[in-house]
Amino acid sequence: MIKSLLILIEHVEQCHAVLTKMYNSLKVPAELNRTLPAVIPPQSSSAREISFTDIEEGVVLLTIDDACARLGIVRATLFNLRQEGKITTVKKGRAVRFRENDVENMRNWYSIPKGKV
Predict the structure, then answer these.
(1) Cα 40 from chain centroid?
(2) How far is CA 15 from CA 11, 38, 85, 105, in A?
(3) Do 73 and 65 form a contact (C-beta atoms < 8 A)?
(4) pLDDT reported for residue 24
(5) Are 52 and 92 in contact (CB under 8 A)?
(6) What is the pLDDT of residues 59-96, one digit of tens each?
(7) Distance between CA atoms of 101 and 107, rounded to whole angstroms?
(8) What is the tens place of the pLDDT at every residue in 36-62?
(9) So where are the chain's domains?
(10) Residue 91: strand pairing partners
(11) What residues contact residue 70 under an 8 Å CB cut-off, 6+ apart?
(12) CA 11 → CA 16, 46, 63, 80, distances in Å?
């Protein structure tokens, strides 16, 4: 029973990774791209990470400090967003990076005044 559940969880995670990759590769018109988040908020509280090898060529990656500066938040807040799965991280070895597009879209998304959408 436990083995079956673990296999099911693995398949769900693989499906989630494929769907997220498809969503993030969609071509969105420029005027919408400024208002839509680049990531789909996950249904679970687990962190979302992708491998450096899954990144398309030409994608700009930001360090933790660069992402914090652009979002105007401290490292602890960024780590909380990461832990909650609200922003996807890119892992290259032990280094953690954030896609520039995800950070900018998050900044735009969370800067929209409530009730104005």
Answers:
(1) 7
(2) 6, 18, 16, 24
(3) no
(4) 73
(5) yes
(6) 788 899 999 999 989 999 998 888 888 888 888 788 88
(7) 10
(8) 555 554 444 345 666 555 566 777 888
(9) 28-111
(10) 51, 96
(11) 62, 103, 104, 107
(12) 9, 16, 31, 26
